[in-house]
Amino acid sequence: MEHIYDMIVIGGGPGGYTAALYATRAGLDTLVLEKLSVGGQMAQTTQIDNYPGFDEGIDGFELGEKMQAGAERFGAKTELAEVHAVHLAGQPKRIETSEGTFFAKTVVIATGAGHRPLGVGREAQMTGRGIAYCAACDGMFFRGKTVAVVGGGNSAAADALLLSRICKQVILIHRRDSLRATKIYHDPLMQAENISFRWNSTVEQLLGEERISGVRLRDTVTGGTADLAVDGLFVSIGRSPETALFAGQVELDSGGYIVADESTRTDVPGVFAVGDVRTKAVRQVITAAADGAVAAHYAEQYLAENG
Ligand code: NAP
Predict the structure, then answer these.
(1) Does the active-site annotation cover 138?
(2) 1: pLDDT strictly greater than 90
(3) Which of 71, 88, 114, 144 is spaced 20 to 30 Å from 136 by Cα?
(4) By C-alpha distance, which of 123, 180, 185, 129 is closest to 160?
């Protein structure tokens, strides 16, 4: 007879491990499946200042490890495994992974969101050859060099500031004439001596053969093009949800996010979606963690009603 967990959590970020913490404290037999290393997206952030309780901020990787340890203290198990397929309808729910098949009465989907690609020619080919998606991870490779950051949101702003401390020059390329990023970023960006801006501009072409040597920009107002010499291009234009595995099994919205309200319940009984993978307005570490607590509550209720 195969083992049937009360709960399997797919994804070991803040949403996943908070669900596991609350579930195990409620006595549920819980397994977390994580593909690579715990922490999710926040593991790529060196300084998290907006998760309360850490008055001097905390490294995202360390926070991830603390969340894992906190859940494991109450008996949550972690399996490093890549999920290949899920069968979510009916009971028990079946998860096929690189480490074998796992069964559970409830499933919490906490797979988060990955980087959104720019969609420009040769992007995949040049990734690692000048194209990067994570300033905290790859910024060091561009020490003393000139880089561009594409985007106008909080990620682009934070990445430009981080890179300005490592690189010689940082050029922020944005398709509008003003930033979407919150006000807290504006002054530091404008005051940084080595950050400049290319407003109303989109990246039309990557230049360079073996590595990026520059980008061709198109001015969205005049329609003209101009080449910009850079050693690297950081793409910070938002996230796309990691939901390919779930298409056709749970309802997704037009952006590919799993449809679930504040209860985190999906349209499949016993299946919950937490954190960045869910339809929601604010995607932060704290809102992912909050989702995890809520999912555990409703999973407990589901188990009480459905055995
Ligand atoms: P975002 O807020 O969705 O911003 C994406 C930016 O990229 C927008 O400025 C958008 O332009 C631009 N963009 C999108 N597609 C593009 C394309 N194909 N070509 C060129 N530009 C494109 O994404 P984000 O900055 O990654 O942030 C994601 C979430 O994480 C947000 O909720 C954010 O608040 C949160 N976050 C928070 C912090 C923090 O609190 N410190 C730090 C990082 C991220 P438009 O403006 O024209 O739409």
Answers:
(1) yes
(2) no
(3) 71
(4) 185
Query: CB of 37 closer than 6 A to ligand 1?
Result: no
Angstrom distance (rounded) from CA 72 to CA 17: 9
Atom of ligand 1 nearest to the CA of 237: 7
Atom in ligand 1 nearest the alpha carbon of residue 151 = 7
Is residue 45 pLDDT above 90, yes or no? no
Per DSSP, helices labelled H in the chain are 14-25, 60-72, 123-126, 135-138, 154-164, 186-191, 285-306
Answer whether residue 46 shows pLDDT above 90. no
Q: Which pLDDT score, from 0 to 100, does residue 39 have?
A: 86
CB of 47 sitting under 6 A from ligand 1: no
Confirm or reject: Cβ of 176 under 6 Å from ligand 1: yes
> Which residue's CA is minimally distant from atom 24 of ligand 1?
238
Q: Is the distance from the beta carbon of residue 153 to the nearest atom of ligand 1 less than 6 Å?
A: yes
Is the CB of 156 inside a 6 Å radius of any atom of ligand 1?
Answer: yes
> Which pTM was predicted?
0.80
Q: What integer is the mean pLDDT of 138-144?
A: 94
For residue range 214-240, what is the model confidence (pLDDT) as tens digits?
Answer: 999 999 999 999 999 999 999 999 889
In this structure, what is the dihedral angle of CA atoms 76, 80, 86, 90, given to the nearest 10 degrees?
Answer: -20
Q: Does residue 239 have its Cβ closer than 6 Å to ligand 1?
A: yes
Q: What is the pLDDT of residue 256?
A: 95
> pLDDT tens for residues 84-130?
999 999 999 999 999 999 999 999 999 999 889 999 999 999 999 99
Burial of residue 152 (CB within 10 Å: 0-12, 13-18, 19+) is: buried
In single-letter form, the type of residue at position 2 comes to E
pLDDT at 37: 85
- Name the residue type at position 15: G
| Catalytic annotation, pick one of 29, 59, 138, 219 | 138
Query: Which one-letter amino acid corresponds to residue 176?
Result: R
Q: Which atom of ligand 1 is nearest to the CA of 283?
A: 32
